Each structure stands twice: as C-alpha cells, then as structure tokens.
Amino acid sequence: MRKLLFLISAAALLLSGCSWRHTQEVSSDFAGYCGEVMLYSSMQDRQLSAIKKGFEEKYPGITMNYCYGNSGKLFTRLNSEVQAGDIQADIIWTGNPLDYIKLKENRILSPYISPQAININPLLMDEHHYYVGGRIVSAVIAYNPRLLSEDQVPSCWAELLEPKWKGKIIMADPCSAGSSAYFMSALMNSPRYGENYFEKLRSNGCMLESGTNATHMSVAKGSYELCIGLDYVVQNLKDQGFPIDMKYPEKDSIFLCCPIGLVAGCPNERNARLLYDFILSKEGQEILVENNLRSIRDDVPQPDFSLDAILENGLKLDLKQLSRNENQSLLAFDRIFFIDYK
Hints:
alpha/beta; 6-stranded mixed sheet; 12 helices; 41% helix
C-alpha cells in the first residue's frame, strides 16, 4: 500500500507540470562526483559530524560542509541569503515541521522525490514533496538524577503544574528554538491545554532559556531540577557523563519528524540531492540511530522504539492548523511569559 501511495504521489507531481527534475541513478563508481555541499541544521555537532563522515566515505570527492545553530538563527540567515540573491545553503534540516510549511509557501524550497522516499511512511512526507521527515525526536521531561529519583519525576505535562515544582522548571524560548516552538504550538492549540496551561506553567515559576543546549545544561548543572527537553539531547549529555536523565510522558507525547528540504536555487543541487538521498537511506538512518536519534524508516532496527506506536499514541495534531495559528500562539505565549507576568 505504501508503494502504491508513493507511485500515485510521484505521478501526480509529474502531471502537475512543476519543475521537479528526476534524480540520476548513482553509479557504483563515485569518482565523477566532486565539489561540495552545504547543510544548515539545528542538530548537534556530534550527529552532524557522523553524517559528514559517512557521506564523505561514500562520496570521497565531495566535501560536506555544515552550519549548525538554533532554528531562529538559521532561518534568519537563509532568508537574508534569499533576499540578497546569494544562497549558500543547499539543504535545510531543522526541528519544527511548521517552519517548512512557510518555506514551501514562500518558494524557498524546491520539490524533490528521493528514490528513498518509497521506504518512508507517507505521513512524514509533504504531499507535494517539498520536504520529508529526516529523523524523529521526542519531547521529554528531563531531570537531574542527583536532585531527583525517577519516581519523583512528573509523568505527564499536567504534573509540571503542581506547586512542588514552583521555580524548578526551565524550557527553551520558542522564539529561538524550533523544537520548543513546536511543543508550545501543539499544547497551545490543544483543547486539553491551551493558553490556560501556559498561564499556570508561568505562575509556577517556569523560566526560559535562549537555546536547546543551554536549557538542558541548566538541568545538568543543577540550576533547575526539570526541563521540557528532547530525548536525543539528554542522551548525548548522558553519554558525556553529565548528570541528566529523562522520562517520556505517559500520555499526549509530542514528537517532531524534523524535516529536510532542498533549497530552491541552491549552488550545489546535484550534490545536495546525493546528500538528501544519503540522509534518508538505510545507511544514513543507521548512522543517526547510532548517535541517539530515531529513524523514520521501518527497516532500521530500533528495539526500544516503534514509529507506529508514536503515531498512534501522540497528541493528535493538525499541522496546517498549527501553522495558521503559529503567530497567534507565539503572541499569546509572549503575553503570558513577558507582558502579563508580574
């Protein structure tokens, strides 16, 4: 059924007359592939370095460069390049799926059907193939195990509102961190949570940090007992010996498919398609899994992870509605955390 959906979608894209160009088959001899490719990503350096190593081993004639930072800075940089007519990025790969709806609307992305797409759940792909999920990350409740035992940690988002956590919680500012913006939009637009949830969270002393890494380090250093975090960032810090751990919420889990998109008018389009395909390939996804990320493919072994379970048990979201309401949600969040807070 998935293959049928893929073929129907591909045929529809061809018939629509869009400017998509079919990918060339990669020869078993990669000697003719040379030059460079630039990836903009909000992933951490550890994961990007691993992807770079794997890609350059497969295509030794191509140098993979990357620029990493929070989503806000990357999109500001990309928009400036587009306006100046001097695009440097070939691929953009950040956390918030809502950003890609706007990139598509503003014609900053170029449609592309990767030959790897047939192995990916259609729910993780844009219907017109302007972007596709490149990895899965989940929002978690991160904590410092030197300050709290696992059974003391809240088991759901609602428990963060309990008075005993007053002044002990931090989260990344949605204005700078795309993953936090998505988390905020998801809860803000849910009838179970809405503005009332964030009003209570702020009244409970929740503070903001400028970026994802800094938010997690505030917990690892003991400045705060809890944070609304990301599973792979927690695991990275654990691997480095920092005192931090996590708990997945028992209900209303929030996951991000972290899309990847080809930048329209990019300077290295052929190499960009090769990197795009490599990231989505089984080989590329296995590299991600080895570095604490979750794969979007069914054929990559992940013993403690089920994509179907996440799709089934996650908070039900309408991405188009979230995108339409995103500015309103950010304004409401700013009012709660900055203007109305006393």
